[in-house]
Each structure stands twice: as C-alpha cells, then as structure tokens.
Amino acid sequence: MATYDLVVIGTGPGGYVCAVRASQLGMKVAVVEKNATLGGTCLNVGCMPSKALLHASEMFEEAGHSFAKMGVNVSAPKLELPAMMNFKQQGIDGNVKGVEFLMKKNKVDVLKGTGKILGTGKVEVFADGKSQVIETRNIVIATGSDIARLKGIEIDEKRIVSSTGALSLDKVPGKLLIVGAGVIGLELGSVWKRLGAEVVVVEFLDRILPGMDGEIAKQFQRILEKQGFAFKLGAKVTAVDTSGKTLKATIEPAAGGAAETLEADVVLVCIGRVPYTDGLGLKEAGVALDPRGRVQIDPHFATSLKGVYAIGDVVAGPMLAHKAEDEGVAVAEIIAGQAGHVNYDVIPGVVYTTPEVSSVGKTEEELKQAGVAYTVGKFPFTANGRSKVNQTTDGFVKILADAKTDRVLGVHIIGIEAGEMIHEACVLMEFGGSAEDLARTCHAHPTRSEAVKEAALAVGKRAIHM
User: Fold this and answer.
1) What CA–CA distance (Å, rounded) separates 324 from 333?
2) Catalytic residue IDs
3) 426-455 as b/e, with b when 16 or more CB fall inside 10 Å?
4) Considering only Cβ atoms within 10 Å of each terminal Cβ, which end of the chain, N or C, has fewer?
5) Is the dihedral of CA 245, 246, 252, 258 positive or negative?
6) What is the model's pLDDT at position 445?
7) Do the domains 160-271 and 349-459 sit in the same CATH topology, yes or no?
8) What is the dihedral of CA 32, 37, 42, 48, to 10 degrees?
C-alpha cells in the first residue's frame, strides 16, 4: 500500500499547482486523475482551447475587415475550420505536456483513475475495473466543476451543445442561439460570430455579464450589438424541438407572457457551472456539502473530515482557474505548517472578447449596497494616444476609490488588452494603495496603460488628457 504526505484528487489548475507547491515544500505527493490527460477542464476543454479559437478568429476578422484601412492589401481570407481546430489542439497538447513535465520534474506520482475518499487518510483509486487503496496523511479535493444543465433540454454536443461541444463544431452554424449572457457564452459567441454565424443571446436577467460593474456591462452590450450580436434579455428558453432540420427554441419572458419561437442550427447552453463531486464518496466519508452542493470548508480550506481539504470550483467563490491556483498554493503551505492565504478581495476577472473586459475588487453596485462612500475616476480610450493611432478606441477605464481614504476599492476596464492592464491595479490593491499612488506612478508613453493613470487622476478631478 503506497503512502503519501498528500494526495490531490484532480489535476486542473488548482490540483496540479497544489501538488507542485507541496512537493517544493518537501512532501511526497500523488495526484489522481480520471481523464486521459492532465490539466482538467481549463487546459483541455475550457480556458486554453477557447483562447486559441478567440485568437485565431480575431486574426480572421482582422484580415477580412481591418488590414485594408492600414494599407495592407490581401485577398479575402478563406476559413479552413479543420486547420483552425488543429491550431487549437496544438495549444492543448503543448499545455498538457507541460503539466506532465511539471509532475515529473517535481517527483509527483500520477495515479490514473477515479478517486474515492474512504475516510481520513485513505483514497481508493479505480481504473480499468481494478482498485487500489492509497494511504496518505492529507487529501485535497480539487475536482473542479461541470456544466450546468437546463431542465428538459438534453445536450448532445452536436446540435445542442455545452461549452465543450462549442469548441469542436465541425462547421460554422448559420444561426447560433446562446442561452446565457455570461463570460463563456459571450466568448464562444464571439468566436462563431467572427467566423460567420448569426448570433442571438438569450439571458434570464435584464443585463449581460451578471456580477460585473453595470456601467461596463451596458457599454459592452452596445459594442457587441455593433459587432452583430442580438440580445433577448429578461427571457428564458423553455424547450428546444429537435425533430426538424433546424432546431426550434421556445423563448418566454422571464416575468411571464407570450412565448415565441426562434430557429437555430446550434443551441449553446451556457448557464453556469456546478461543483463536480460525483463518485468521491463524500457523504459516506462524512464530508459536508453546503445547500448548493459545494464542499464546505473553514478559513484554512479544511473540510468536516480531519485531514481532508478542498479548493477551486468545488468550494465557494468565483469559479476561476487563478483563484484555484492561489488556493492550491495556500493549502499546500497550510499543510506544511506555514501561513497560506488568499486575498479574495483581489481576484481579477477577464472576458477575452474583442475588446476585452477586466475587473478587480468592488463594483459600483456593491459599494452602494454596502453603504460605502466612494469617488469615481473614468478615462475613455478615445482620449488615449496609443488607442487613437491604432484606431482601437472602444471602452474606458473606471476606478472606484474610498471617499475618505482614497484607497482603491475596484477597477474596471473595457478595451483592447484590458486583461493585461488589470494587474497593476491588482498589485496596487494588494498593498492597500490609493488612487493618488497610481496617479503619481510614471507610465510609459504611448501605451494604453496610460488610461489607467488618467482614470486615477480623474478620481481627483485632474485628468490631463480629458
């Protein structure tokens, strides 16, 4: 019977990073993975392949619509979808091999199979009809999340697809109906819109991007509508008829009322994700779940069962790979007797469309609800020199600061490369920095990041270029 200091169930970003950090701290570590490849949803059917297709489809769009105005004359681009999918797969393969290399480099044993917790210190691993029991001092549950499903609508990953199927369509759909106006739906909608699909998004709420700053979401919706997206907000899909050559979706107002029918070639269901705990034996082992099916943990990531911890999508908090990674590092350090910690007030979020949307900290709505007095500084990319010369002026930077202390409480950006620009705000907020600190930090010219400095200046009503 093999004995370890730590066994991690799941090798997504949270799990494999946890394993690496634990190994660095001198532990004997094993990971359990049920899939053929390491890396979890993120590397195989999530973050990474979607970014490959977002990049490739953006290049296709640029070649077809933007090159000529810059004096670059090329013939109309022709889409070779199999080649684009091969480009995506090359990226997946490279990242998966990278995780395999990290396991070998850090002497982490990879146990292929499905993991089940038998109790404190024992994990059973099932593979190919056989099982083995692994003894370990500590266990970390890092099993991630699964797609949320709509009642009565069966996902076949061919015509009615989840995000997984939407990453591998064999042809561009004439009409794509997306259920859910969250991050994943808008990103995948962007891919297929650029490649030629007609895209309609149905959202139960009266806005897109639930949870993001309302002002940012409104401008982003206008930008997407200019790109050709159509939105039906405050509506729900109640049924999809699959009997005909095209799908017929029944759409009803969320508040009640007359239904309408929309035809589509593909329906993409993107209504969120749910914790994945199937087969782990949590109930039998005595690991408590909350009412939403998430593993309950204390501030040190410990579950109700001694020696068992949980991180990532399977616990409360934003379902983000980087949040899981930080938790993986923190729990490894806690198990090693150190002071592992995650600052949940500084977890950035990014929508990887064109333009991108990024956010960290509080939204205006959250500050109003909490009764916090705040000041706002905004700066548009129309007034940013680099954005002007590149003719990429959509969007703006918005900074929210405490009215009394000037401490930055939230930063929200919509614009080209917004996902790269958000991190100076993250660093500033980690150190409790003020808008004044950011405003007095020299930024290189000409860069888009100057808009961040100008927004910080605008908090004090002294922006230079506006």
Assistant:
1) 14
2) 445
3) bebbeeebbbbebbeeebeeebbbbbbbbb
4) N
5) negative
6) 98
7) no
8) 160
> 334-367: buried (b, 16+ CB within 10 Å) or exposed (e) per residue?
bbbeeebebeeebbbbbbbbbbbbbbbbbbbeeb
Is the Cβ–Cβ distance between 414 and 394 less than 8 Å?
Answer: yes
The pLDDT of residue 241 is 98
Contacts of 372 (CB under 8 A, 6+ apart): 362, 402, 409
Alpha helices in 171-244 (DSSP H): 183-194, 214-226
| pLDDT given at position 1 | 61
User: In angstroms, rounded to a whole number, what is the distance separating the alpha carbons of residues 327 and 299?
Assistant: 11
Cβ-contact 160, 154 below 8 angstroms = yes
d(CA 49, CA 90): 9
The first and second tokens of residue 439, run together, are 């405003």
Continuous H helices in 75-127: 81-105
Q: What number of CA atoms fall less than 13 Å from residue 207's CA on the CB side?
A: 12
Element housing 232 (H / E): strand 230-233
CATH number of 160-271: 3.50.50.60
Mean pLDDT by 10 residues, the chain (466 residues): 91 98 98 98 97 98 95 96 98 98 98 98 96 97 97 96 98 98 98 98 98 98 98 98 98 97 98 97 98 97 98 98 98 98 98 98 98 98 98 98 98 98 98 98 98 98 97
What angle, 0 to 180 degrees and rounded to 10, lies between the N-to-C axes of helices 321-335 and 13-24? 30
The answer to whether 329 and 369 are in contact (CB under 8 A) is no
Q: How much is the pTM?
A: 0.97
The encoded tokens of residue 50 equal 């979607």
Domain boundaries, the chain: 3-147+274-335, 160-271, 349-459
Tokens representing 57 are: 């489809």
349-459 belongs to which homologous superfamily? FAD/NAD-linked reductase, C-terminal dimerisation domain (3.30.390.30)
CATH architecture assigned to 3-147+274-335: 3-Layer(bba) Sandwich (3.50)
233/215 Cα distance (integer angstroms): 16
pLDDT value, residue 173: 98
Residues 6+ apart with CB under 8 A from 62: none
